[in-house]
């Protein structure tokens, strides 16, 4: 029986006895930097960055191993001990028995409420956790209600272990760094200010103050404190049986100090007496600041139940407003799931890819792909400022077509790669163009291609194959000319350099080299002879799309030419015989790279836009034919697919092998999306994917079949157990991109099959075991893994809006081209999507009273605010930008009648 239930249209949900499910965690964060994770018993951690962890860092296995959670205790001399989080030795013993507490979690965007009912004490507790949008503090709002017919006499305790240092110190000098702690108590709680932070790089004075404060609704402040772990647990005590609580040990008073020990935000409140039905309220503050004054400000801002409840409502409203996209289909649970999918890109922007329990790698921030793919969702939900963000992000591109891989704070801040390690992901040039094209489609701002942006410069040169010994960090991180001027080129120039340098960097089969990896980071063991057919297909599509963007610029701009850096001229070679010659292509690329390995001339040449577009189209056409001729694998009469990779021995990884078939999804996605596969081939690819990769009960399309070998000449993914992560799991990102590719080529039913299976598996709590949303992947038993922080969410949302509902931009005009299947309409034949386009709030309502299927209906009429738009009776209609610009800021209803 599915235990998770939605309780409103915004996706808020509830689940009973959540502690009976392993690995659950919920994210909380603010725009100010604090990031938390909460388990059903309020375990998890809290931090602002890699160096600043308020609570002890956790990985997935710590979620059930650790007992050092946020806790609130109630002690009754008559009835015993009760933990409001269920984290006492007695409550753990009673788990899965008839004596287990009744518990329930209710949660929504950035808020989480844990309710617990103790039959032993006859009390009910409720802990609502949230992080206000504007402050670096996690607030726990606690209520205690007497459910008995008698007056209850109880002593409350708060207990939150304070870690207070870098995540690195978990295994690097943990005990030594506790000696840096300077701990003190004041009238409201416990504060910890380490004297310094240090690692092998050096010693740095510390100014961070970590704190746990508390107060009661009746003006009560803590009456004594247990500021160290040893004080609170007592000799031989544990976090589930702390002697300070069980034995009512005396604590220290406000104004006390301790040093050199692990810190504990623990204190005892005055004894309370609750009459039947009466409740008491408490507020705990978990935070980190740079000054005592800032802590006092935060405390004053939220130190009463009224203030907290007001802040909670403000927080809820803020995030509801942020998630300004909504869907109405024939499945209300799917519509509510989509709210969480639309929320996930915000979580990735705040958390990066390092700060939730399964994401226990890296040091925070986002990678190059994340920068661009997160912009996809922002363009659909919060487009203001995305143009400027795109411009700044192009500042990470090097003149050799590679890019910075260490992303600094804020937009457009890039850092030289750590330790001079050259790492080139061959797919990195793909994503900036995809995002820029969507931006132009949604806004009509084709002139973004003419904007000037600097190039990133560090010691890496010639596409990571050499170190520039003439460069030093004192020169800054911007490319300079021979005259020592900082050079800036147009975004169009950046895009050309990225696409063209990739075109010439080929391997032994004239396919783009794999280098360190492509999108699949786990294909990292074929640096010499590895080639990515999958992304060669993608780049073929990119060349064609860049050409179309240039033709649009040519059509709309009075200037019919582009000025490009002189060194780039050689990359525009249009000799088909050269394209066939692997050595000549490598030599040409080497010539270009050597000409700009340290500085560039700064000279420019002029080329006609139409000539430039034609040049790229020739390259795309040649690539397409070459891939068709060399990489197609013929299966049975109705099956076939494209090889995706060559390994480090130069062997194709897919096809028919002794006793097995080897197939990967990635090559099929990009051959379809890049318009390499023909319509007939797409049908055969679908049959093959359904035959070899599809497994409905675990989410749909696996990333690959089982190769039954470690395959050290390809990547670490083959060391994973089959069905885990990149080795044959249902990897949501690629499954969604498969759906997107199918929709783009007109295969709506097949695309919906991929999306629907992912959604159904996510919603099947008994299988997925996750809160609502799309995880990074579903493992071999269907459990959702690496939840929340995945690019799949952006692609799922984009596919639903631009392909399924067909609401997308084209040079700034609004296109309506639905591909909804019959089942996606409600019982009256309606389906709708709410979003922002051209700065206007729109609700597009499709009326299909006969519930016809995709491909069988046409658009009969389109009206907005009662005004008719001329249609041509096809499956597509357009609303010009000039009409949209005249609309008011209120929500406008666009009604599309289907026939």
From TrEMBL:
| Keyword Transferase attached | yes
> What's the superkingdom here?
Bacteria
Which keywords belong to this entry? Glycosyltransferase, Transferase
Domain Glycosyl hydrolase 94 supersandwich residues, every copy:
102-304
Pfam families per the UniProt record, alphabetical:
GH94_b-supersand (PF06165), Glyco_hydro_94 (PF17167)
Signal sequence bounds = none
Residues of the Glycosyl hydrolase 94 catalytic domain: 613-806
Write down what this protein is called: Cellobiose phosphorylase
């Amino acid at each position: 029986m599915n235990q998770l239930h939605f309780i409103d249209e915004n996706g808020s949900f509830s689940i009973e006895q959540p502690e009976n499910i392993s690995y659950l965690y919920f994210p909380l964060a603010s725009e100010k930097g604090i990031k938390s994770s909460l388990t059903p018993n309020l375990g998890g951690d809290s931090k602002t960055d890699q160096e600043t962890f308020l609570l002890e860092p956790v990985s997935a296995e710590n979620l059930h191993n650790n007992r050092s959670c946020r806790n609130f205790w109630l002690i009754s001399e008559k009835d015993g001990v009760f933990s409001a989080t269920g984290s006492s030795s007695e409550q753990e013993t009673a788990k899965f028995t008839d004596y287990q507490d009744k518990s329930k979690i209710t949660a929504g965007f950035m808020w989480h409420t844990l309710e617990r009912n103790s039959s032993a004490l006859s009390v009910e507790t409720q802990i609502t956790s949230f992080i206000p949008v504007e402050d670096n503090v996690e607030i726990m709002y606690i209520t205690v209600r007497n459910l008995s017919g008698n007056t209850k006499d109880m002593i409350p305790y708060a207990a939150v272990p304070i870690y207070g240092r870098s995540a690195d110190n978990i295994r690097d000098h943990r005990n030594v760094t506790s000696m840096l702690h300077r701990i003190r108590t004041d009238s409201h709680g416990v504060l910890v200010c380490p004297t310094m932070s240090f690692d092998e790089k050096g010693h740095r004075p510390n100014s961070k103050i970590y704190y746990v404060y508390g107060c009661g609704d009746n003006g009560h402040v803590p009456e004594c404190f247990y500021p160290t772990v040893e004080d609170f647990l007592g000799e031989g005590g544990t976090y589930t049986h702390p002697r300070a609580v069980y034995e009512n040990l005396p604590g220290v008073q406000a104004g006390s100090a301790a040093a050199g020990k692990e810190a504990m935000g623990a204190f005892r409140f005055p004894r309370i007496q609750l009459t039947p039905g009466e409740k008491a309220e408490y507020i705990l503050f978990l935070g980190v600041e740079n000054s005592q004054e800032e802590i006092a400000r935060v405390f004053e801002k939220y130190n009463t139940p009224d203030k907290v409840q007001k802040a909670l409502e403000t927080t809820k409203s803020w995030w509801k407003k942020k998630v300004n996209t909504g869907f109405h289909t024939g499945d209300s649970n799917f519509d509510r799931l989509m709210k969480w999918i639309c929320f996930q890109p915000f979580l990735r922007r705040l958390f990066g890819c390092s700060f939730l329990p399964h994401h226990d790698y890296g040091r925070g921030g986002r990678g190059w792909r994340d920068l661009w793919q997160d912009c996809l969702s922002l363009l659909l939900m919060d487009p203001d400022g995305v143009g400027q963000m795109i411009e700044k992000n192009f500042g990470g591109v090097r003149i050799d077509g590679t890019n910075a891989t260490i992303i600094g704070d804020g937009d457009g801040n890039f850092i030289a790669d750590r330790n001079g390690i050259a790492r080139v992901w061959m797919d990195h040039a793909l994503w900036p163009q995809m995002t820029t094209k969507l931006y132009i489609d949604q806004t009509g701002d084709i002139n973004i291609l003419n904007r000037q942006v600097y190039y990133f410069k560090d010691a890496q040169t010639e596409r990571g194959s050499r170190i520039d010994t003439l460069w030093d960090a004192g020169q800054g991180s911007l490319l300079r000319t021979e005259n020592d001027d900082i050079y800036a080129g147009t975004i169009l120039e950046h895009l050309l350099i990225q696409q063209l340098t990739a075109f010439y960097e080929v391997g032994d089969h004239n396919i783009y080299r794999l280098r360190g990896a492509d999108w699949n980071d786990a294909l990292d063991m074929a640096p010499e002879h590895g080639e990515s057919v999958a992304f060669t297909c993608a780049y073929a599509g990119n060349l064609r799309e860049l050409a179309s963007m240039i033709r649009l610029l040519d059509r709309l701009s009075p200037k019919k030419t582009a000025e490009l850096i002189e060194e780039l001229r050689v990359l525009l070679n249009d000799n088909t015989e050269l394209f066939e010659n692997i050595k000549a292509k490598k030599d040409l690329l080497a010539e270009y790279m050597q000409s700009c390995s340290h500085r560039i001339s700064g000279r420019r040449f002029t080329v006609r836009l139409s000539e430039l577009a034609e040049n790229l189209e020739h390259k795309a056409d040649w690539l397409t034919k070459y891939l068709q001729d060399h990489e197609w694998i013929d299966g049975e009469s109705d099956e076939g697919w494209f090889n995706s990779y060559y390994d480090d021995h130069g062997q194709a990884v897919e096809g028919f092998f002794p006793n097995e078939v080897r197939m990967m999804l990635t090559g099929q996605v990009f051959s379809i999306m890049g318009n390499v596969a023909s319509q007939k081939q797409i049908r055969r690819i679908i049959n093959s994917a359904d035959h070899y990769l599809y497994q409905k009960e675990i989410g749909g399309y696996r990333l690959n079949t089982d190769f039954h070998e470690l395959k050290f000449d390809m990547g670490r993914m083959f060391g994973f157990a089959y069905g885990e992560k990149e080795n044959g799991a249902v990897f949501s990102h690629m499954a969604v991109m498969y759906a997107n590719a199918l929709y783009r080529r007109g295969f709506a039913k097949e695309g919906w099959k991929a999306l629907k299976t992912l959604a159904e598996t996510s919603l099947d709590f008994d299988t997925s075991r996750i809160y609502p949303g799309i995880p990074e992947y579903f493992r071999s038993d269907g459990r959702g893994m690496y939840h929340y922080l995945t690019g799949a969410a952006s692609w799922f949302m984009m596919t639903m809006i631009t392909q399924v509902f067909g609401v997308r931009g084209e040079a700034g005009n609004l296109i309506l081209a639905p591909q909804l299947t019959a089942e996606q309409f409600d019982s009256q034949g309606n389906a709708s999507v709410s979003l922002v386009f051209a700065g206007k709030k729109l609700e597009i309502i499709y009326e299909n009273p006969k519930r016809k299927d995709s491909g069988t209906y046409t658009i009969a009429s389109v009206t907005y605010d009662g005004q008719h738009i001329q249609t041509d009776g096809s499956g597509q209609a357009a609303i010009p930008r000039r009409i949209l610009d005249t609309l008011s800021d209120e929500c406008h209803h666009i009604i599309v009648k289907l026939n």
